[in-house]
Write a structure and sequence with these properties.
This protein is of the alpha+beta class and 282 residues long. It has helices spanning 5-33, 37-141, 145-164, 169-186, 246-260, 274-281, and strands spanning 190-196, 205-211, 215-220, 226-232, 238-243. It is rod-shaped and about 175 Å long. The protein starts with a helix and ends with a helix.
């Protein structure tokens, strides 16, 4: 069994007291029982020698324990200082992280505000595109049928895409500009073609002649009946002035042939205004 320095010291003291007591008892016994004094003295010397050895060991143990305790205290103090340093470092890092977190939160908040502003701007721009489409739609409905039908369809399709948000603003703007360009080009061109008549008085296939955005006429294949576009009514319906005059109808057919390059160029008197149409109807 191992003892601490203090316990060993106490044990040595008890052994010394015991040796003294034994010595006293020995002398008493010698006097009483006439024992061997020399053997008893040698035995006591051995015990005292053992006591000195134990005391020496106890002193060495105490010195070693003291040194170990001092080392332990030093290590503890060093570790305590290291912990304090680490704690201070962690506190500084915590402060820095809190500052970074606050900075990131501010950046995120600013980014969210910018994103919201961007979304509002995009929404405003999309609404502007739809408003422009609505204004162009009113103008397109008043244009000749060959221009109106195509332009109204394109504008309506674009407005529906904008409302459904199936296209981005860049594509919407590109399509709007293309429609405007087509509308502008149509106002400066002459168009001819073969189409199905929408005028009840002219059935089946008919030839069409359009000049810019001011004149459009269709004529049956026999060249007997023609119809001149005269705008739209209050409900937005197209108005056609029908003329059952082969002479007038032949003028439209001749203009189409000149445009096709199938006959020699010549000046053709086409009824651009309603008075001319009314006169032709008479």
């Amino acid at each position: 069994m191992k003892f601490s320095g203090y316990e060993k010291h106490k044990r040595i003291v008890r052994l010394a007291i015991g040796a003294i007591a034994i010595l006293s008892l020995g002398f008493s016994a010698f006097a009483i029982e006439n024992v061997d004094l020399e053997n008893e003295i040698n035995r006591l010397k051995k015990e005292l020698s053992q006591v000195r050895i134990e005391r020496q060991r106890a002193a060495e143990d105490m010195a070693r324990d003291k040194k170990e305790f001092a080392d332990y205290q030093q290590r503890t103090a060093t570790r305590k200082n290291e912990c304090a340093t680490e704690t201070d470092s962690i506190k500084r890092q915590t402060v820095l992280l809190v500052q970074k977190r606050d900075s990131l939160a501010a950046i995120i908040n600013a980014s969210q505000i910018k994103r919201k502003q961007y979304e509002l701007l995009q929404e405003s721009f999309r609404q502007s595109v739809m408003d422009a489409c609505a204004r162009l739609l009113d103008l397109a409905k008043k244009a000749p049928a060959a221009i109106s039908n195509q332009t109204v369809g394109a504008l309506t399709f674009l407005m529906n895409d904008c409302k459904a948000k199936t296209i981005d603003n860049i594509e919407a703007l590109h399509r709007l500009m293309q429609i405007i360009q087509n509308l502008d080009d149509a106002g400066a061109t002459i168009q001819i073609g073969q189409e199905t008549s929408e005028v009840p008085e002219i059935r089946g296939s008919a030839s069409m002649l359009r000049i810019g955005a001011v004149f459009e006429a269709i004529v049956d294949d026999d060249g007997k009946v023609c119809a001149y576009w005269s705008g739209v009514d209050s409900l937005g319906h197209e108005r056609w002035d029908v003329i059952r005059d082969p002479a007038r109808a032949s003028l439209v057919l001749k203009a189409i042939l000149v445009r096709q390059g199938k006959t020699l160029p010549s000046f053709i008197d086409l009824p651009y205004g309603s008075p001319t149409v009314k006169e032709a109807k008479k």
